[in-house]
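dumping this here so i dont lose it
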């Protein structure tokens, strides 16, 4: 009986500590981030009290080419109805080099149908998840059927990269190096002063900024760097290979020089290298 009571006491103490940790953090919606290394292996980080990066390879040794992080929700309890409980929303997705889509659930990648030959994926919440289909259109994830469905297209354009921003707002890059924003009804082309002198590689939108990964002809910024969009002008932001901004306003970027992961939290004056991922050569970050 004494052992039984001791075990019960330890369980209660552990639950109380977990609850206190969640309360101390004060997170309501904490980001889940996915970094892809140069071998195509995804690493997942849930920004909870531990915040550790965990290797999470795709099934059958497939390589990932794009990913988007979801969010980790805190409650108060040790069960869905009690204080301190935390659950995973399931809005984290990835795309393999063969164009198959996967959803991260129960600490594993689960295959999702409906998007074929996919080249990119982005999410805000589980209600706002889109993949770039092989034909250059978008398909939206339906959580009820657990499939990508429908077709969202830009007339006479082939979408290559997207980012789903605050509230589910969609930004898209097309094969012809044009930038578009979806206003909820139609696509609006955004002005780019560099015209045919810039090749758009990727996009991230967050904290009131639009970040474009681009190659600008005639510049000394290397084959690929990150720029902010200011009234149609591309303004050099940093020598980064890829970039993403999560809901907490944390900017994550991969260095052009070391190909390692850096971050900048609100209030930080400079980027800092992620100590856990500084041994991994990375190719993509989604948060």
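and the seq i came up w/
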């Amino acid at each position: 009986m004494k052992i039984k009571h001791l075990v019960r006491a330890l369980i209660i103490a552990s639950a109380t500590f977990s609850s206190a940790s969640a309360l101390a953090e004060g997170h309501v919606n904490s980001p889940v981030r996915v970094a892809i290394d140069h071998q195509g292996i995804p690493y997942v980080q849930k920004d909870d009290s531990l915040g550790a990066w965990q290797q999470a390879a795709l099934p059958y040794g497939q390589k990932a080419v794009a990913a988007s992080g979801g969010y980790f929700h805190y409650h108060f309890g040790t069960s869905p109805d009690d204080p301190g409980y935390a659950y995973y929303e399931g809005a984290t997705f990835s795309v393999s080099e063969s164009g198959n889509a996967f959803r991260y659930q129960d600490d594993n990648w689960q295959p999702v149908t409906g998007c074929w030959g996919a080249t990119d994926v982005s999410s805000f919440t589980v209600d706002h998840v889109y993949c770039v289909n092989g034909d250059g259109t978008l398909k939206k994830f339906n959580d009820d059927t657990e499939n990508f469905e429908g077709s969202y297209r830009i007339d006479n354009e082939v979408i290559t990269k997207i980012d789903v921003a605050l509230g589910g707002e969609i930004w898209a890059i097309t094969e012809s190096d044009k930038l578009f924003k979806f206003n909820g009804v139609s696509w609006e082309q955004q002005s780019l002063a560099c015209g045919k002198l810039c090749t758009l590689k990727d996009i991230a939108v967050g904290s009131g900024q639009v970040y474009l990964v681009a190659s600008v002809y005639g510049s000394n910024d290397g084959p690929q760097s990150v720029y902010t969009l200011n009234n149609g002008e591309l303004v050099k932001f940093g020598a980064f290979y890829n970039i993403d901004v999560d809901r907490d306003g944390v900017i994550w970027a991969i260095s052009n020089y070391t190909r390692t992961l850096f971050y900048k939290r609100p209030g930080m004056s400079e980027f800092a290298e992620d100590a856990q991922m500084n041994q991994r050569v990375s190719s993509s970050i989604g948060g």
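The mean pLDDT is 88.
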